[in-house]
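Ticket #169: bound-state structure for magnesium ion.
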Amino acid sequence: MSGARLGVDLPDETCTAALAALIAAALPAGSELHLVGPLGAGKTAFARGFLRALGHRGPVKSPTFTLVESYDVTRDGVALTIHHFDLYRLADADELDFIGFDDYHRPDAVLLIEWPSRAPGRLAPALVVELEITGPTSRHATLIAHADAQWSGLDFGTLSTRINELGKL
Ligand SMILES: Nc1ncnc2c1ncn2[C@@H]1O[C@H](COP(=O)(O)OP(=O)(O)OP(=O)(O)O)[C@@H](O)[C@H]1O
Ligand SMILES: [Mg+2]
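RESOLUTION: The complex was predicted; output attached.
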């Protein structure tokens, strides 16, 4: 079930990174963020911005073949592990069991998931970011906070205000 929505224009990749940074600061530990959109929409670019904002300085590879890449970071002095999934190559939701998906869900971890549509019925996002390609360098993002966002602690109102303040992202 989905709840509040917010649309944001992202004229260039720097704006996508800025949006990712705001979400990285706000997304509660223990939650899932889904990244939705066609090939080349900028899902991995968003994940890169998210990780950079949390201080990760190394490369951020697309986990298309490995299914998941994990990064240890700190946020506000608290250790946090970011698991970046790309489920594009998943043939069946049951394959999640082979990689021990449920074990990645921990109170000190955030899951970024590209192609969540490959695992219907198995995932529960606090927030979905849908990316549309609107031009060679531009994207439109739609943020959708889900019903479980409330118990997961995402303050979508404050996040929306910050995004609107960045405004001319
Ligand atoms: N505003 C923008 N935001 C994000 N990426 C952009 C933007 N403008 C151009 N790009 C480019 O679009 C491409 C996005 O590629 P990326 O790998 O992030 O897509 P993806 O959605 O992860 O695709 P896939 O489904 O294949 O994993 C990159 O080459 C990036 O430089
Ligand atoms: Mg990708």
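RESOLUTION NOTES: The first strand starts at residue 2 and ends at 10.
TICKET STATUS: resolved
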